[in-house]
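Tutorial, part two.
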Amino acid sequence: MTAADSPATRPAPPADGLRTGEPPRGAGRPPRRRLFGDRVGSIEVLAVLLILLVLFRGPIASLISDARLQTWTTVFVSVMVQAMPFLVFGVALSAVIAVFVPRSFWAKALPKHPALAVPVASAAGVVLPGCECGSVPIAGSLIRRGVTPAAALAFLLAAPAINPIVLTATAVAFPRNPEMVVGRGVASLIVAMVMGWLWLRLGRADWIKLPHRPDLDDLSRGRAFWAAVRHDVMHAGGFLVLGAMAAATINVIVPEVWLQRLADEPVLSVIALALLAVLLSICSEADAFVAASLSQFSLTSRLVFLVVGPMVDLKLISMQAGTFGRRFALRFAPATLAIAVLVAVAVGGVLL
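Running the prediction step on this input gives:
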């Protein structure tokens, strides 16, 4: 036996026992993919927990003896119940945009000049019956499809405040003050356009950092749709939970007597209701009834509440940070708050 045939120099067989040159078993077969994924992820756990929390709200509340904890649980569940349907609607529409709408559509639908695309995108918010929870993933999907960020952000701010459901709810909440409906629609539209144009002037592309979404081009449309839905719900839903927890905490901490004292001061009442809108994080379909209940405040200060709420609140800031990045949220939210207060006060001074 020669040295080349000795066991020490003879090449070892492949680890899987196949002869050299043979393809591994199963090679060439596409990996089997399941419609809803190969494992139970955090979004499934979150959905189950939320469903259980809603179904067993009564027994859970009865186990909590402290009144503040009961209030916290009630507010948290209320925010989640109000927001989740519209979040799911927004995520589904975002997935439709990402999968079924070609990029060429947006080039035809919006003016080529970014400054002209901003008011068109703002006015497009009229046709979307949703709240701010759904507008965030939709705006993110628009940016992914090539829409200029200024137009997408203008749509994000306008859609929750000027859609027919919100304006109808405002009319029902203020039956004796129809000017509140006009004031809310006009002020919100102005704020959205101003923020869009302001982004064109001062915004930077590196401030927006969209989370990595798995490549959808290699999937069928059905699988790509569910992949996009799972991805957006995981990001937006998690931050919505954090925002709802923060809003519930604020509701427990802030005493109601403070509001009564602030209502007597015109300037402080505007600031107070602007901050209250940020802290309460009420969906735009329901905030008009809360504003109507604050009868000790002036109509102008309540208009500020209605304009600020759908554009800047805790859950929205949290969702913006999760969708666009912290650098974006830390700059965009304060600027939107300042512009919203100034415009709402100006519109209220003219119409109310």
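Confidence is low (pLDDT under 50) at residues 1-27, 31-38. In part three we will examine how such features are distributed along the chain.
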